[in-house]
Amino acid sequence: MSRFTCALACAPLVPWVFVAPAHGQTADAAPANDILVVGQTQKPISIEPRGLSVSLGDEQFAGVNAANVEDLMKYAPDFFVRTRFIGDNNAVPGFRGTHSTQSARTLAMVDGFVISNFLGNSFNFPPAWGVVSPNEVQQFDIVYGPYSARYGGNSMGGIVNITTRPPDKTELFVNLQNFFQPYDQFKTREDLWGWSAEGGFAWKPKDSAWGVRVSARRLINQGQPMQFYQLGYSASAYNDPSAGTPIGGAVVDPKLMPVTGTKVVTPVVGDYSLTHSRQDQARAELRYDAGAVHGELLFAYWWNEEKTLNPRSYITDAAGRPFYGDATGLVSFGGHGYTLNAASSFRQGLAYKNEYLLGGKIAAPVAGFDVQLNISTLRFARQDTYQSNGYAAGLADGAGQWTHQGPTGWYTGDLIAMRTIGRHAIAFGVDGNRYETDQSVFATTNWRTGTAPRLSTRTFGRSNMIGGFAEDAIALDDATRLTLGVRYDRWRAYDGGITAIAKAGPLTGLPVTQLYASRSDDAWSPKIALRHVFAGEWIAELSLAMATRFPTVGELFQGSLNGDGSFNPNSFDPKLKPERSKDANLLLRHRFGPVTLTGSAFYQRVRNTIFQFVGFNQNGVSTSSYKNIDLTRQYGLELIAETRDWPVRGMDIDGNGAWIDAITVSNPSDRASEGVQFPRIPRWRLNGNLRYRVTPALQAVVGVRYASRPNTDLDGLYRGDDYGYTSELFALDLKANVDINDHFRLSAGVNNLTNDRAWVYHPYPQRTFMIEAGVKL
């Protein structure tokens, strides 16, 4: 049975459309002409709801088996997060037709403090989710598209804001989780375990304006191998099986991605090791509320450690011993010869990443305006990766590579003033940020400790942006509101450079540094939204916007040096242009008794999309690097259903279905990509979450996620369902929640009950069990 058939078989979970967590408006919700938010919770949405907007709270969170904070959004409409395992620190979110490595198109925040890593644009630059745990989240708000002038061009895909639990009462809390995944892929078969423990307290004296909340969490987990080793293809060796060491035990899987330009599928010879992850998180928050004056001070620290110390070889030599490669660099298997580099295969690794968020906020009335000031910084206190040069060096603590990053991080701030004058709700403000990075790669004699480091390369750079906006929401009448906005941004990238060791010329053996030219640009971005309440409480909203997303330092300063230390002009694009989008979104929403339906039609056209692909650069040379795609386009339809106490009392169903058409329209660097569905964007997304209160103390939950098979590459040549591809996805999740009493709760669940094997190049988790216990006093 296909995954799509399985998804359709689960359709009875919802009345008309497959569903994802979107909570329905209750009878005491705000007036329809003020709010058009899917899943409006008891708390108002924390970001400006322009276009499709979703707000998730405790009722939706109860329906999720959540170990990572980003799990709480996994059923949201036409939205995904690339989380590969519990404890993954490369979880990139995506909206609608945004590729899962276009991380710079999402603005992510915690309590309004920016956690988006705009140092690059790929899975290596995810938001800093680790500064908050799932149980500390009060609300998740998601806005699709750049329709509010209050946010910069990095909201081109959308905006996510996490609102954490405030210290609004005195309490103690403890939460424990345990995870188990029996994993089986190729010849890797392991029972993988993990757990988390969290505790803390909130202190809020009666009649006091002050409140404090402190919490700490530790998570330890074994994740499945993220990659698998394959034999290398060489045209000369392939037809000469006598050229290498005979081996046995390799896995021949015809579903694997073939070598580019050939029909050869290379055998799998081992895995990259289980991922042993440890994360520690500490958080402290101080709040002050006295009348109209509000203040917050937040500090969160996240320690992350990943170990990949046990790569597994599937292959054996003639004597039956495990084989990890030898000095010949060649092996023979199945009548063919292949390459196997012993220095770059079966490597061992250690990775450490520590980061902290410090943010302050104050809001108060000033001269008739409601004024709010936010200032924050997120810093990487440590980011080091160590890798051995092959298996033998790993065991012997021999030669390897050390990658050190720092100083790295960012500073952000914004000042907003708001006031209502008659029928006008006006707002204006300024904001700014500065991002900086510095990364060095060293060769070392002891890979574990980085002993006797010898510089190989160093890259560094900075960017900043200053922006301002003005917005006026005009109540044309009691049923109609027109919002006009405009934004201006001034961007600069500077202090960029690269250092490498010269291998030729008069500077042979010496470090040579070349600096990039500074870049600057600016953009105006107009916005408009018109909302109207028709007879019978039908609500419609049309939103139009333009947005500009400037290059990150990782995209702009990405070149390399020639052997003599001079810039290689074919390795980067010194004239990389910013992305410029034109967006439209039409919403229609109506409640039919216990069922609320929201329909959405969206359109986005992006000039100069920045994407990493193989194509011709500015010099007409074929390279793999970040380039501009002249024009990409996406449009689609979304239908969201929300039911409460229907079709039976105690049952809530939330859901969405989305159809997306995202293509490359014009790309002179790679004409073969034109007219092709953009990579990693499925044609269909269908999600569902059903929560049923069986008894006052017992809640049963069913969740479903489905995405059709997308293209893996820009040209649409690779579509598959195995390692190396982006595959179709079907996941059926179950959960049960038991309230023992007002202070003690238990839950148990399973993700991916059918053990569907899905891929995003890397493998997604297989069937995973979870139990959880929580106490509040």
From TrEMBL:
Primary location recorded for the protein, binned into one broad class: membrane
Xref: Pfam families: Plug (PF07715), TonB_dep_Rec_b-barrel (PF00593)
GO molecular function, a single term: siderophore uptake transmembrane transporter activity
Compartment(s) where it occurs, according to its Swiss-Prot or TrEMBL record: Cell outer membrane
Signal peptide: 1-22
Keyword ATP-binding: no
Gene3D superfamilies per UniProt: TonB-dependent receptor, beta-barrel domain (2.40.170.20), TonB-dependent receptor, plug domain (2.170.130.10)
Occurrences of domain TonB-dependent receptor-like beta-barrel (ranges): 307-753
Topology in the lipid bilayer: Multi-pass membrane protein
GO BP field: siderophore transmembrane transport
Keywords, comma-separated and alphabetical: Cell outer membrane, Ion transport, Membrane, Receptor, Signal, TonB box, Transmembrane, Transmembrane beta strand, Transport
Claim: Membrane is one of the keywords in the record: yes
Residues covered by the TonB-dependent receptor plug domain: 56-159
GO cellular component terms given for this protein: cell outer membrane
Family membership: Belongs to the TonB-dependent receptor family.
Protein name: TonB-dependent receptor
Natural source organism: Sphingomonas lycopersici
